[in-house]
């Protein structure tokens, strides 16, 4: 009788635990503003995305894990389904788009701003100008006298791919070209070696890591003369906005999750008012410049009469 009497209570307890267990499980599922997701990020854009992710996580019940790699490594991970959210300085190419088409996934591409490729040299070189034509000739292996050597971050990086496409070559030349792993390594090498020209993502120069701040003081950011221009233009926010700097590149968040997850929520955040203000503060060009409210105060009629 005693066991029989306790059965209803055991049953009620079981239903209670089952109900709240299911509710908890549902609450942990990923949505556009909560849950956990991994985002693949181009190494040249690391400082900017660190800021965007920090502010996004502070505002929502979400945790974003950032994996920073070179562009080539990113795309390998992206296509292997390591993550279906990637931040790039280019759109998907035809082959990559077809791959997701076969999976019946339609990529959602959100443009979030404009960055640039920047050329740097040691301050001791006393030269702050460079012609893009000379850089291209050097990469093509053709004779010229202005460029002694180029320094890249990584053979698989977006900066190398960008410059190769510009020069019409498939691989960077082996002679006179140096490569490391990260942008900060390029800055360090250029700062300590006269005559070298470094090729880096502009974001690293506007938002240097603490261990780079002293190195930044030892380099010049070069103004560049485009192939069809007579003027030397610096990679500033204003020149990006006016379209006069010849090495500008748009930035994209590409989401191939195939469902309404954090990829969609994060892309909307970065493309929204707060995310665009972060891009503006980072020294890059947002897609939409956040508006500023200006309040004009006028003297009251009563005050004017007393005066």
Automatic annotation (TrEMBL):
InterPro entries listed in its UniProt record: PBP_domain, Phosphate_ABC_transporter
Signal keyword on record: yes
Protein keywords: Signal
Pfam families from the UniProt entry: PBP_like_2
Signal found in the keyword field: yes
Alphabetized PROSITE patterns for the sequence: PROKAR_LIPOPROTEIN
Parts of the chain that traverse the membrane: none
Residue span, PBP domain: 35-272
Protein name: Phosphate ABC transporter substrate-binding protein, PhoT family
Source organism of this protein record: Flavobacterium frigoris
